[in-house]
Amino acid sequence: MSTARDEPPGLRAGEPAEARGLARDEVRLLVARERSPLRHTTFRALPAALRRGDLVVVNTSDTEPAAVDGRRPDGSPVALHVSGPAPDDLHVVELRRPDGRRVTDAVAGECVRLPCGVVATLITGHPDPRVVSGNGPWRARIPVAGGLRAWLACTGRPIRSPHVSQEWPLEAFRTVFSQPEPEFGSAEMPSAGRPFTPEVLDGLRTRGIGLARLALHAGISSPAAGEAPLPERYRVPAAAADAVNAAHAAGGRVVAVGATVARALETVADPAGRVAAGAGWTHLLLGPHRGARVVDGLLTGWHDPAAAHLPALLETIAGARLVERAYAAARQHGYRSEEFGDSCLLLPACSTRRAQ
Predict the structure, then answer these.
(1) Whole-angstrom distance, CA of residue 319 vs CA of residue 304
(2) Helices in 165-227 by DSSP H: which ranges?
(3) Phi, psi (deg, nearest 5) at residue 227
(4) Phi/psi at 67 (nearest 5 deg)?
(5) pLDDT band at 344; cut points 50, 70, 90
(6) Which residues contact 224 (CB under 8 A, 6 or more apart)?
(7) Which one of 110, 173, 232, 246 counts the least CB within 10 Å of its CB?
């Protein structure tokens, strides 16, 4: 049976808040606490929804112009989305039709012609290299003189949801925390952090709420129904780990800004909920088999959970009842979803950390 958490809010944001005459922090914020009335406010009021001693953890990964137009061997147009690096100097990619749907009949060995004479050759499926046909994702070889990122900077554009019909500049897909790094960043914007502004950060500092930074480089986030998210690269610095442990020791709550932050923190958390610095690839999926050990609250956007593991992740952190209440209210009150949409702060009544 379908429940409220299985269905997205009815309105999808087709353009940034700025294009609607709003500042980034003027998008709506639904504050959902267990055993408390839901609160409808704006993101600018986030500091007032938290308390002194809490710690907000954000993702600093920059967004890449990871979409580029190409042609298949039969001449049909296609968009190639670069998710990130793979072993053996390959990259993980997916192919999309002009209408945004996945290409379902690609085969290993297929060559996709891209701008400036570049050719992407599909090698094997990903993450299972035994896959040689279908809808991907794929491991592909994309030899480019001067490097793939420099080429994408000249020819690529941001990956956007199908309902966003107009092209927007890369800056619209960056957060205030974005930090360009030598390595490939995020294929798609860590969008939970988009509404933050310097004014909101000042408000957090004034109220004695801490801020910690980590990086998780998000890959393509549009898996088909039943597909799990791909492994992703992360880096949790010692400063972030120390801040998390100190916040918990002092009785504060750790609030993850987005599923990317939750995934990174839980990857480096021991069974007692203590966090250590770390870096690498994470395959972790939160759910009934692995509960939250360190994250006490989640700041997230509204997304269609039908094609991903979001329901399990949200419920693991906040509980099924609170998530269902929030999604039902979002649909009733017309909250906007997807990367340019509104926000939700999920705060369970008590810590969800547990030994596992």
Answers:
(1) 18
(2) 198-206
(3) -85, 140
(4) -110, 135
(5) very high
(6) 102, 135, 307
(7) 246
